[in-house]
Amino acid sequence: MLSSTRRSPTDGAAVWLWPGRALYAGPSLRLGPHSGAVACLAVGVDAPFTVQPAAGGGARARTALIAPRVRHRLTAYGDRMVFLYLDPGSADDRACRTRFRGGEETVLTGHRHEEDLLGGAAELSSRTPLPRVASWVARATGHAGTRHAEPRIMAATRRLLDADRPLPAAPLAAELGLSQSRFLRLFRDGTGTSYRRFRLWAQMHRAARALAAGHNLTRAAAEGHFASPSHLSTAFHAMFGLTPSALLSQDLTIICLDPTPRALT
Q1: Rounded percentage of the chain residues whose pLDDT exceeds 90
Q2: Which of 53, 196, 207, 259 is placed for a possible disulfide with 220 were both Cys, Cβ 3.0 to 4.6 Å?
């Protein structure tokens, strides 16, 4: 089952949403410094890009995997980029990390199948058949699913992504038979990000699904449990380096995919 909203009949930018993944393909964006809640595989479709962490250093690459919670600036030198966001701690995330040849723990560079990925990334658009999109993601990660090594973490992330209201850590920990402190440690150890940051990622998913259904930013903010559209805009900018309005201006198509990964693999 999928739903989509098209802002223009031309192929501009496209976003695909799965419960444990998100994929952007489209024009290079003028991104400010930001810190993602989940791991991000960046692909410079037609030219390299640089990743400059706030802590210092930097890397020039065509493919890079940026760890969660790493504040950085990404500068693209080509016309198009692809960003694949992976549920931290998932099999996707763990497998993808093994496919890089260089870099450091926070920013890995040089995917082992870089040329293949670049060729496939150049073909990604809102018109790309879904099996081909899923095939590209599988090649990028080296894995076809999003299952976590720790079943309780998988249950927690799914609950957050499916929640129809804000979900504090305490009741979710109780559902899993854990103390709140033990649950928060387990969550951070299993995902590499905090519960608060992943909950914000889940809220972004809900807001994006509302936009895909044709709602405006005010309704999307409410659906994502944000206090206001400005709250959504501020949080979005901090996580992705641009505002939702700037992204929506890129002739954007949002495609929400069935929550069951088997539908695409």
Answers
A1: 61
A2: 207
How many other C-beta atoms are found inside a 10 Å radius of the C-beta of residue 137?
24
Instruction: Report the greatest alpha carbon distance in the chain.
Output: 51
Q: Is the predicted pLDDT of residue 1 greater than 50, yes or no?
A: no
Q: Strand, coil or helix: what is 129?
A: coil
Are 247 and 7 spatial neighbours (Cβ–Cβ below 8 Å)? no
Predicted confidence band of residue 145 (pLDDT cuts 50, 70, 90)? low
pLDDT band at 142 (very low <50, low <70, confident <90, very high): confident
Spatial distance between the Cα atoms of 217 and 198, rounded to a whole number of angstroms: 21
CA distance 240 to 194: 17
Q: Helix 151-162 crosses helix 180-191 at what angle (to 10 degrees)?
A: 100
Secondary structure of the chain: what % helix, strand, coil (to 5)?
40, 25, 35
Length of the chain: 265
